């Protein structure tokens, strides 16, 4: 049976970043279920850009898509008001971004396309079972890292469910030529269908519409909001594809789990995601770095918990920002005030 110092489950930004740093002097297996890109707006936020800049990493042009974005159109379907705000995002192909992160791993990191099936403790480590290529395999790991997102198999098998809010992110792709609108990025609020947000964004020849909805009747609410957007002026045609995934939204310290007893959780597997914007790439990278810095400590679990304290509080404090974004009364006041908004050329008052 093959043995590894660490098995990392999940090859997104969290898992790939951890494997890249820790793989310089450890034998690591990165287990990723390829071919299952996460439904994601695919925007690299300033926080994520800063996290990557720490490594002097530059992005190859092959992962970028048109158009590049420096403003967001905020739409309130309850009042039919809209405002534009300056935002500096990098518009990219999320699947290509993840593949690129895995392409720059050290040669010593073994990458396997497979699905984690079982985790059992044995002899001071773990027997990790996974399916790949139509067969089952088992390896031994001294330590285990769960970087497998909101629906983490590692977390559920080792610690159980998080005490946090859960949503289903649903996203559809449309051919942009069938949607006669000028390319832009929008953030949509509609308290009748969700207490979270939705979005539209152009990516090359496609228009993406997506949103986060309560699990119960999520598809019905998604379609209901889509119909309201049609009335607002979005002429959606037939979708090219539809995708969905679980997304978390932390609200209290119990919304996070860093792991324990040889198992570490990073990224959204640990609950690290912004409750206001649902942005998670920056937290994925920063938590991966924190774990790498903690492994050499006498008590790595304690060190990792301490190193992510500021991240946890930063995410929880974003719930204060949520008041101005998601509470209809406060959102209406903010949008009516026009504070920090952009007045479009030739435009009068906002709708």
From TrEMBL:
InterPro entries reported for this sequence: FAD/NAD-bd_sf, Geranylgeranyl_reductase
Superkingdom as given in the UniProt entry: Bacteria
Coiled-coil residues: none
Gene3D superfamilies the record matches: FAD/NAD(P)-binding domain
Classification via SUPFAM superfamilies: FAD/NAD(P)-binding domain
Name assigned to this protein: Putative oxidoreductase
